[in-house]
Design a protein that fits this description.
The complex is a heterotrimer of chains A (311), B (531) and C (298). Chain A has 311 residues and is mainly α. In chain A, 79% of the residues lie in helices and 0% in strands. Chain B has 531 residues and is α+β, with helices and mostly antiparallel strands. The chains are: A mainly alpha (311), B alpha+beta (531), C mainly alpha (298).
Chain lengths: 311, 531, 298
Amino acid sequence: MLKYILRRILQIIPTLIGVSFLSFSLLYVFPGDPAELIVMINSGVEPSPEMVEKFRVEAGLDKPLIVQYINWLSKVIKGDFGTSWSTGEPVIEEIAGRFPASAQLFFSTFLISVAFAFLLGIIAALYRDKAIDHICRFWSLIGISIPSFWLGLMLIWVFSVHLHLLPAFGYGTLKHAILPVITWSVSFMAIKARFIRASLLDALNQDYILTARAKGLSEKTIVFRHALRNALIPVVTYLSLSMSHLIVGSVMVEVVFAWPGLGSLLVESVFKRDFPVVQALVLLSAVIFTITNLIVDILYAVIDPRIRYGD
Amino acid sequence: MRLTRRDFVKYTVVGATSLAGVSFLGCTQKEGGEVAKPTPVETKAEAKPVYKDTFVLGEGKDHRLKGGKWGIGFFPKIHVLERLVEYDIKNDKLVPSLAEKWDVEQDGKVIAFQLKKGIKFSDGTELNAEAVKFTMDRLIAKEHSLRPEKAEVLDEYTVAIHFKDAEFFNLAKMAEFHLSIMAPTSVNPVGDPAAELVKPIGTGPLKVVDYKENQYAIYEPNKYWYERRGIEPKFKKFVVKIIPDEDTRVMALRSGEVDAISDFSHGGSDYTPRNQLDILAGDGYKVYKRNIPLTWVIAFNYEKEPFNDSEIRKAVSLAVNRDEIVKIFDGHVRPAWNGMFAPEAPGMAKAGITYEYNPDKAKEILSDLGKEGVEVSFIVDKGQGDQILVAQLIQQQLNSVGFNVNLDILEGGAYKQKRDTGDYDMRLYYIGGTDRRFYLRLYWRFHPETKWKAYLSPRTGELCKAVLKEFDKTKREQHLIELYKVLYEEMGVVPLYHDVMTVVTSPKVEARQEQLFEMAEPFFYGVGAKL
Amino acid sequence: MVIEMEFAARTIRLRANEKLTAILGNRMCFAGLTIITLIALMGLLAPLIADDPYKTDLANRLTPPSPDHPFGTDQLGRDLFSRVVYGARVSLLVAITISLISMTLGCLIGAVSGYIGGYLDDIIGRIIDVFLSIPELIFNIALVGILCVSFGASTWNVILAIVITNWVSYARITRGMVLSLKEREFVVSTRAMGASDFWILFKHIIPNAVGPIIVLATLNVGNIIMTIASLGFLGLGIQPPTPEWGQILNSGKNYITTAPWIATFPGLAIMLAVLGFNLLGDGLRDVFEPKSRRMSYG
C-alpha cells in the first residue's frame, strides 16, 4: 500500500515541476523584454534603457533562465510569491485574504449540487427511458449549455430587480450567497447528474445484478445495496476530480456577483496587469488540481484493491 | 409502495446535505467596515428626523491615508484638510479660506499669508504659521512636483512662501488639493517633515478614525469645524467603501450597501457612468450634479501622420456631432460647441468661438488632401464604460466622412503604455478639472514643460506661460482668450462635451445641493441618512 | 498497392454510410444538427435578414423589442437582433478556426508521439499532463491577459490563447488511441508483413480513432463557443464594436433594470449554440461508442 502511495507521489512530481516551470515562464514566452515590460507596468512610463538595465540586474533577470527558475522556485516553495505590483502587499497575503470567500462558495455549491445530482441521477437511472428520465437528461443537457454568467444575470433580474427578494451582489450575509450558489450549482449538478446516471446504469448492467434479480431480491435492495455501492466508486472519483475543477472554476460566478473570491481576484489582476498575482493563481490552481487528483487516486486505491495491484 | 422508503431516504439525504451546504454559507466573515445596524440617534426634540449613526459612501479611488508620492488621497484632502485660499472661478480670483489676506511680493516670487486666528486642528492644536511651514517643508522633503522653494515663519500667524519663479500660478497653486494644510501632529516624531505619516490631521469637517488600504476609510466629525460653522453633523461615523469598478459601485448603491456614491473629486475617472444617471433617477435615487470646467476632448498624436496636419484635425472636428454624443448621457453633460472650456471658465464667454458640425465639409477636406480612407488608431481606456460608448459613436461619425478608424479598447496599463510611447493616432482625454484645478490643468496640458500635455505648439506654449505669469486679471483674461483662439485655429484638440461632478444617493438620504456642492468637489459635511 | 487503397476506400465509404444512417436516426444528433444548421444559416444569411450591426441611432437608444427591432436596441441605438445575428458569424467562425487548428496540432502531436513511442512519447505525455493540470478557463484568462500586454488587444489573442489550452485534449485522445492500437495484433501482423508505418497509421489506426475524435471535436466546438463568450463577458475577448455575444451581454449588465433585453438575447443565443453542439456530440457519442467505453471528456 505504502509503495503504491509513494509511487503515485513520485509520478506527480515531474508534473508539478512542469507546471511550475510553465507558470514561471509565462512572462518569457512572448516577445518583448520582460524587464522592460515590468518596469513599464510598475512605473507607468516608458523606461529609459538605464532604468531597464538597473532593474534587470536588481531582479536577477540577467542570469540564465535556469538559475532564475531555481531562485523563483525556492522562494515559491516557502510560500513567497513575491509582492503584488498593484498593492505592494505580499501576493500570498492577498490570496489568503480572498480564499475564504471562494472556499465558502465552493463548499456550499459542492454540497448542494452533489445532493441534487444524486437525486437526479438516481431517479433518471431508476426510471430509465420513462418520461422523467428524459426530463432529467434534458435538464442536465441544458444545465451544461447554459452560460453561468447569463444565468446569474437572469436570476438577478428576477429575484433582485423584480421581486426585490435577494441582493444582487456582494458578500456578507446568507442572502448574498443564495443566488451565486444556485447559479453555480445548476451547471455543476447537470454534469454530475449525467455521470451518476451513466455510472449507475453501468453498474446495473453488470452480471451480478442479473444474479441478484434472479435470486428474487427487491429492486430497492438491488439498487441501494449492490448497484449504488459499486457505482459509487467511479462516482466518488469523478466527484472528487470535479471538486478540483470547482475549486478553480468559480471565476464567472464570482465576477457576476462581485463575490470577493480568488476567481474575481484573477480577473482583476489580469486587468491591472498585476503579473505576480496572476502567476501565483495559475500555479496554485494547477497544484491544487494535481494534488486533489493524487489524493483521490490514493483513496480510490484504498477503496478498490484491484487498482493497487494492477498498476 | 416500493418507492416510499427509498424516497424518504433520498429526501433526507438531500435535505441534510443542503442544510450542511447552507450552514457553510452562514459562517461568512464580515469584511470591510462595519455597517452598523441603524440605531436611533438620541432625539433632542420630537420634530427632528432621526438619522443613522453611520453614513456609508462608495467611492472609486483609495484614500491613501498613509501618504505616498502624491500625499494622501483627494477625498481626505477635501474633507480632512483645508487650504489657505480657495478659487472662485466665476470671478477668476482667489478668495480667503484659512488665510485672511496675503501680500504678493517680487511679482509673485514670495507670497506672505496672514492666517485667521483661533482655528484649531481636529486634535485641538492650533493652526499657525508653524503648521503651514510644516506642510510646505513636507512637500519639499517629498519632492512633490508642486512644492515651493521654502517657507518662512514671520510671526505666529504669518508665513512667507518662496517660489522658484515669479508668477501668478504660485498663488493659484495654493488653492490646489495638494497644497492643503496638515498639522505637524500628523507625523511621528511630531513636526518632522520627513517623518512617516501617522494619520493626516487637518482643520476640515472630518477626522480620520480608521483605514484599510483599497478597502475602506472611516471618519468622524471634527467638532471644531462644525463649531466654526455653527451646525451639527447628521452622522456619528462616516465610512467610505472603496469600490474600484464603476458598475459594482452602482450595484452597491442599489443593494443598499452604501447610502450614496460619489464621483472621484479629481475628475476624469472613477465616476458614476453618466448614462446610468437617468436610470437611477427613474428608480427613485437622488442625483445631484454640478457643472465643472472639465472638458472631454479628442487628443491627437500630432507629431506624426496624419494628425500632424491641422487641416485633418479640423476635419475630425467637423465630423463630430457633439449633440449626438451628449444624447448618450441623456443630456446630463453639455456639448462643447462654444469652446475648449465650459462657459463659466475665465474668458470663455468673451472668446466667441464656435465649433462647427459639417460632415460634408469634413469629407471635402479629406478628399482634397487625398486622404480618404486614411487609417487611424483610436485608443480607449477600458475601465471607463462611458468613454467606450463615446468612442464607438465617434468611430461611426468619422467613418461616415471617410476616415477608417480602428478602435482599440485597452485596459488601464496597456492604454497608458500606448499613450506614453505615442503608439496611437487619437485618444479621448480631458482638459480642465474641478474649479481649483483650472490653472493647474492649464499648466499640465499646455505648458511646454509638462509631461501630460494635450497639445503643444510654439504659440500655445507661450500663451500658456503668459497666462500663468500674469497677476492682473484683465490682462490674464486677454491671454486666455488668445490661447483659446489659437487652440481653435490650430485645432490642437477637439472638444466634445463639458463634464459634471455627480453624487447619487439613496432616497433615504437627506442632502442639500448647496452644501454638497459648496465647492466643485462633493462635500459631505451636511448629509444624513434617515432611518 | 492500388487494389488495397481501393479496398480501403470502399470500406471507409461503407462504414461512413452506416454511420451516417445511425447518426441521422439518433434523436439527439438530429436535434443537435437542426439547431446548429439553424444558427449557421442565421450567420450565413445575416446580410439578408438583418441590418447593419454597427449603425448607431441615438434617437432610439434602449428601446424594447418591437416590430422594427425584434430584440430591441442597445445603448447606442444599434439593432440588437442584427448584432446577435452577426454575432453568430463571429462565434462560429472563431470557434471553428480554433477547433481546426487545435485538432490538427493536437492530433498530429498525439499520433506521432504515440506511434514513435520511447523517450519522445514519455516527454510529450508529461507535457500533456502538465497542460491538463492547469484549469482551462484560468489558463485562458491569464494567457489572453499576457498576450494583450505583448501584442495589444485583438481577436488573434483569443484564438492563440484558446488553441494553447485546447490542443491537449486532442493530443491525449489521439495518443491514447494510437498507443492502444499500436500493440493490437492486426497492426503487429501487418508490420510483420512489411507494411510501412505510414500505411499502418492511415489504414488501421486513423479509421479507428476517427470516431472519438469527431465526438470530441463536436463537443469541443461547443466548449470553445462558451469560452469565447466567457472571455467576452469578462471584457477580455473580442472587443466592441464587433458584435460578440459574451461582450454584448457584458454591456447589457448595467441595464438589467431598464433594458433587460440587451442581456437576455445574446445569452439565449449562447445557450442554444452550445446546446446544439452538445446534443450533436452526445448523439455522435452514442453512435460511435455505444457502451460506456468512453473517455471522460471532462
